[in-house]
Design goal:
By secondary structure, the protein is an alpha+beta fold. About 35% of the residues lie in helices and about 20% in strands. The chain has a 3-stranded antiparallel β-sheet with strand order 2-5-4. α3 crosses α4. The N terminus and C terminus are likely disordered.
Length: about 170
């Protein structure tokens, strides 16, 4: 990796730094640059190709395999979340929720923005705990539960305004 300019992202928040340290990941220039992409747009998701293009635009020449590995390591330590984008047949990455508890998320399949449904956290946490207990009873070791609802956000629905609340379709 070579640097064409000194465009380094802002400091890493303490909760993310703690996750990096507990996973044994160093805060290299590449790590800080990748984190900067996600910290600049916490609700956004990016594919590997989009991350690579954005880093190159910012002046970082990073090997694409190195970027794949870094994204996967950041997902493994809980800094990022990795989601399948079935339409594009690729992985998308987003900043992981740093709060306690499980908040389901809504992901727009058109623009790939994510919205945390924090008001549903308590009931969702109860369901997640029940699922993990069920798995443990079967001898499995569940690591996490990811609850996602896919659809189209109010901004992307044709003919709907950004402030219009949409009723779920069956």
């Amino acid at each position: 990796m070579s640097v064409r300019s000194n465009k380094e992202p802002a400091t890493v928040p303490p909760e993310i730094q703690a996750r990096l340290e507990s996973a044994g990941l160093r805060r290299t220039l590449a790590t800080r640059a990748v984190l900067g992409l996600f910290l600049a747009n916490p609700q956004g998701t990016v594919s590997h190709a989009q991350a690579l293009a954005s880093l190159q635009t910012r002046g970082l020449d990073i090997n694409r395999v190195t970027l794949y590995r870094l994204l996967d390591r950041l997902a493994a330590c809980g800094v990022l979340q990795r989601h399948a984008d079935d339409g594009a047949r690729t992985w998308r990455y987003s900043l992981a929720d740093t709060g306690e508890g499980l908040a389901p998320r809504f992901e727009c399949d058109a623009c790939h923005r994510q919205f945390r449904l924090t008001e549903a956290s308590a009931p969702t946490q109860a369901v997640a705990s029940d699922l993990l207990r069920t798995l443990a009873g079967l001898g499995h070791q569940g690591m996490r539960v990811d609850v996602a609802i896919h659809g189209t956000c109010a901004s992307c629905v044709p003919g709907a305004g950004a402030t219009t609340e949409q009723e779920p379709r069956p």
